[in-house]
């Protein structure tokens, strides 16, 4: 025992020097929000841990803490929306766990059925859908769910939920065709106040314009897992810290640049695009130093991943009409509206090439629409090409 303590005291000068260095580094971490790994002797490592907690961990704000803090933004609410967002966050953690171990478990590949969209259903599609439905049903703050995977809405007729104030529209796993090849996928959600007065939700509760959303967001399961959402008071991003199992605020008050250097579109369908889109793509590829062209083409095939990148770095995401999808491919209620809400709150724009996405009146639960979204200047330019060279989609 003496030898152990004696060894520590013998190195006391070194320890004191390292503590001084650690304090300086801790201040830099606090200022720059950057992480660093240190290799220290065991004794000074203990001091390092204590100092890091003091200077860095005290600055961490979890999703739960943030939601409670921002609850005062809604004086008419009594905490229901906060609890609903919490329930979505819990389900996202469960889905993230399964996505991360997909290659080790029997949840890759197709489930042997098709969804209402006529698309092959992946096993993880089914799992994600079940988890979000379960979390929202048990939480008691949601009276109905509209999911990409279900043809009809899912009324929640339980004593604690049938008279709840909110309905949720959700794409449980966007980009699921990328699951088997380990490419980023995501969840998209939209929250509305119901329009029916009481009882289980009806389809009418979901037939609302995007301007009526009270909250919307997405979760991206990638190299790290992030939840990005808005309640109409700006956009905030939270990164999942697996060591504590919490989403922590990492991207406060996100804003997208007014322009960028990236356009995201599936150019494999070029011959089937409207003339306005073809002209815009050629414009993006032309060399012009004044507008910093040509732009780079970046297309992942997962809307959440493409839009997340463009939201941070600037760019435009386009999914236009094609010969095979004359009404567009993406769904208005649970894909385009929530993404449009986020993008506009971050300073960008979202249209169908002619009209603001969030002002489109939905007629059907799984209604499709073209989608042009991202940096405001780039979207405006794309819409100018559509106005000049294409016919408006109605």
Layout of secondary structure:
Blueprint lengths: L1 H9 L1 H21 L9 H14 L7 H7 L10 H21 L9 E5 L5 E3 H17 L2 E6 L6 E2 L10 E9 L10 E9 L19 E9 L3 E6 L4 E7 L4 E9 L7 E3 L10 H11 L10 E2 L5 H11 L2 E4 L10 E2 H14 L3 E3 L16 E2 L1 E4 L1 H14 L5
Helix pairs in contact: 2-3, 4-5, 5-6, 7-10
The count of domains is: 3
- Shape, please? globular
Structural class of the helix and strand makeup?
alpha+beta
CATH architecture of the largest domain: 2-Layer Sandwich
Number of helices: 10
Major β-sheet profile:
8 strands, mixed
Helix proportion: 25-40%
- Name given to the CATH homologous superfamily of the largest domain: Fructose-1,6-Bisphosphatase, subunit A, domain 1
Based on CA atoms alone, the radius of gyration comes out at 24 Å
Termini, distance in Å?
A: 82 Å
* Low-pLDDT runs: 1-10, 25-56
The strand order across the widest sheet is 4-3-5-6-7-8-9-10
Q: pLDDT average, as an integer?
A: 85
Strand content: 15-25%
- CATH topology of the largest domain, by name, is Fructose-1,6-Bisphosphatase, Chain A, domain 1
**What is the chain-wise order of helices and strands?**
HHHHHEEHEEEEEEEEEHEHEEHEEEH
| Number of separate strands | 17
CATH classification, class level of the largest domain: Alpha Beta
Describe this structure in words.
It is a single chain. By secondary structure, this protein is of the alpha+beta class. The chain folds into three domains: 58 residues, no CATH class; 192 residues, Fructose-1,6-Bisphosphatase, subunit A, domain 1 (Fructose-1,6-Bisphosphatase, Chain A, domain 1, 2-Layer Sandwich), CATH 3.30.540.10; 128 residues, D-Maltodextrin-Binding Protein, domain 2 (3-Layer(aba) Sandwich). Helices cover 35% and strands 22% of the residues. It has an eight-stranded mixed beta sheet, sandwiched between helices. It has a five-stranded mixed beta sheet with strand order 12-11-13-17-15, with helices on both faces. Strands 1-2 form a two-stranded antiparallel ribbon. α7 crosses α10. The N and C termini lie far apart (82 Å).
């Amino acid at each position: 025992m003496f030898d152990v303590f004696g060894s520590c005291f013998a190195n006391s000068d070194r320890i004191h020097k390292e503590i001084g260095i650690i304090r300086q580094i801790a201040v830099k971490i606090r200022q720059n929000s950057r992480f660093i790994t240190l290799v220290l002797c065991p004794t000074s490592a203990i001091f390092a841990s204590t100092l890091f907690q003091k200077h860095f961990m005290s600055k961490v704000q979890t999703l739960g803490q943030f939601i409670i803090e921002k609850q005062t933004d809604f004086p008419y609410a009594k905490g229901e929306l906060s609890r609903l967002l919490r329930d979505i966050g819990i389900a996202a953690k469960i889905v993230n766990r399964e996505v991360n171990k997909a290659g080790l478990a029997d949840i890759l590949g197709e489930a042997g059925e098709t969804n209402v969209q006529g698309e092959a259903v992946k096993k993880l599609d089914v799992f994600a859908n079940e988890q979000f439905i379960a979390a929202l049903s048990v939480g008691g703050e949601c009276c109905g769910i509209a999911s990409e995977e279900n043809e009809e809405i899912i009324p929640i007729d339980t004593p604690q939920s049938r008279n709840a104030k909110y309905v949720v529209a959700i794409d449980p796993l966007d980009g699921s065709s990328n699951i088997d090849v380990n490419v980023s996928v995501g969840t998209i959600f939209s929250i509305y106040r119901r329009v029916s007065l009481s009882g289980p939700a009806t389809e009418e509760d979901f037939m609302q314009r995007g301007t009526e959303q009270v909250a919307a967001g997405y979760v991206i399961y990638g190299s790290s897992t992030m939840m990005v959402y808005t309640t109409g008071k700006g956009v905030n991003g939270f990164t999942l810290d697996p060591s504590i199992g919490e989403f922590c605020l990492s991207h406060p008050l996100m804003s997208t640049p007014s322009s960028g250097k990236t356009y995201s579109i599936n150019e494999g369908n070029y011959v089937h695009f409207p003339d306005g889109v073809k002209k815009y793509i050629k414009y993006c590829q032309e060399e012009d130093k004044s507008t910093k062209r040509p732009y780079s083409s970046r297309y992942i095939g997962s809307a959440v991943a493409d839009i997340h990148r463009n939201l941070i770095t600037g760019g435009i995401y386009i999914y236009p009409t094609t010969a095979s999808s004359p009404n567009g491919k993406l769904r208005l209620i649970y894909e385009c509206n929530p993404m449009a809400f986020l993008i506009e709150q971050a300073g960008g724009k979202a249209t169908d090439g002619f009209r603001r996405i969030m002002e489109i009146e939905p007629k059907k639960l799984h209604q499709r629409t073209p989608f042009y979204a991202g940096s405001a200047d780039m979207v405006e330019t794309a819409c100018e090409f559509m106005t000049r060279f294409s016919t408006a989609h109605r």
